[in-house]
Design a protein that fits this description.
By secondary structure, this protein is of the alpha/beta class. The protein has a domain at about 1-40 and about 90-165 and about 270-335: FAD/NAD(P)-binding domain, CATH 3.50.50. The chain is about 35% helix and about 25% strand.
């Protein structure tokens, strides 16, 4: 079985490794030359996911045991656990690890390369690869995988569009890596911090995550309604957040960012002929907290199992049908509630009334929730115990 995967992020590289282990002939291509460049990702994961996905210590930038929320009025709310609850990944080192693992398992990895769809049928696909040195080559494969994230390059080239009844929640994020000193980083260690409210950024949120060597990952994400475009550069709200947190003197080591998007029910077309989507291209990101890595890698494992079981003898129509059934089976009511909360929260966060509603919600959580329970809410989407407090966001 020959497979070409376009996009060597967490989902694409993970899928390539799993397929190569099974004996498939896999080619993996990515636009980047260096896996450690443009390392845009918040990268917070619960400990359970680190163990389950087999991520090595080299990919972990820090651990955390606390949640810290800065509400619209500037009040700070904290929840602490006795033991570590999760990690912050170094996304560049994670991608480097995955690229090494892919090559070690026999994957042909071509970096610095763009892919253009040449031909797509139910029997296979051909893609023209354009390298940065101007060289081009034509590759014909049985299965073609779009793992290009929110760009959805191949899906768009194939003419696949989102379902109007289940539109994409779309936005953009910007993240800077700051070099703090021991004193400046003290207020941000061992916790992941979020900034919520229009005084921080309308239609979105900000964050500060601790990294190795007193470095801090500081970012903002803007997720406006479809009829309200992002108002120019996000550098201004990001700089304002950095200034309010007393970090203006910290040197900026790196600047990166990119689009984010996902549908609530994943009802958009994710397959056509020999083309299948995986990871963020298949709306695996959960935009309530902007979490994508864990779900992207899980979706890669799910697609790998399906291709290994059916890829050689399965026809494209049957594969697309099984893939849709498999994805639908993964969609619990919690996932859809989480998506609706994201849409309600970020789309509606543009006035003082929304700020007050958010403050009441945070105050309620502050009075009753523990740090582990908050992790269950935001990572496992365990909404039952908070149903009445979340009801205003679902109406």
């Amino acid at each position: 079985m020959s497979v070409l995967i376009v996009g060597a992020g967490p989902s694409g590289a993970r899928l390539a490794i799993q397929l190569a282990r099974s004996g498939a002939e896999v080619t993996l291509v990515d636009r980047l030359l260096d896996p450690e460049t443009h390392a845009y990702s918040s990268g917070a994961l619960p400990l359970e996911a680190v163990s389950r996905l087999g991520l090595p210590d080299e990919t972990i930038a820090s651990t955390w045991k606390g949640w810290q929320l800065h509400d619209p009025s500037g009040l700070v709310h904290q929840w602490w656990a006795a033991d570590d609850l999760g990690v912050v990944l170094d996304f560049g080192l994670l991608r480097s690890f995955l690229w090494r693992e892919a090559r070690r398992h026999g994957v042909e990895l071509i970096s610095g390369c763009r892919a253009a769809l040449n031909k797509l049928t139910t029997e296979g696909a051909s893609v023209r690869l354009h390298r940065r040195d101007g060289e081009t080559s034509l590759h014909s494969v049985r299965w073609l995988i779009d793992a290009t994230g929110a760009r959805r390059d191949l899906l768009q080239q194939a003419g696949l569009r989102p379902n109007p009844a289940d539109p994409l929640l779309q936005g953009i994020g910007v993240e800077w890596l700051l070099q703090a000193d021991d004193r400046q980083s003290a207020a941000w260690r061992e916790r992941i911090s979020f900034f919520l409210g229009t005084t921080w950024i309308p239609h979105g949120y900000g964050w500060i995550f601790p990294m190795q060597g007193d470095r801090l990952k500081v970012g903002v994400c803007h997720l406006p309604p479809a009829d309200r475009l992002t108002p120019g550069s996000l550098a201004r709200p990001l700089q304002r957040l950095i200034q309010r947190c007393g970090l203006s003197a910290c040197p900026v080591l790196d600047r990166h960012g990119g689009p984010v998007s996902s549908s609530i029910s994943r009802s958009e077309p994710l397959a056509a002929g020999a083309l299948l989507a995986v990871g963020d291209a298949a709306s695996s990101a959960n935009l309530l907290g902007g979490e994508g890595i864990r779900h992207a890698m899980d979706s890669a494992d799910q697609l790998a199992d399906l291709l290994i079981a059916e890829g050689m003898r399965g026809d494209s129509h049957a594969m697309a049908r099984r893939y849709r059934q498999h994805l639908d089976g993964q969609q619990s009511w919690r996932w859809k509630v989480s998506g609706r909360l994201a849409r309600r929260t970020w789309w509606g966060l543009d006035n003082s009334r929304a700020d007050r509603r958010l403050e009441r919600l945070i105050k309620g959580l502050s009075a009753t929730a523990t740090a582990p329970a908050l992790s269950e809410l935001l990572f496992d989407y365990n909404f039952e115990r908070y149903g009445l407090r979340l009801l205003p966001y679902l109406l």
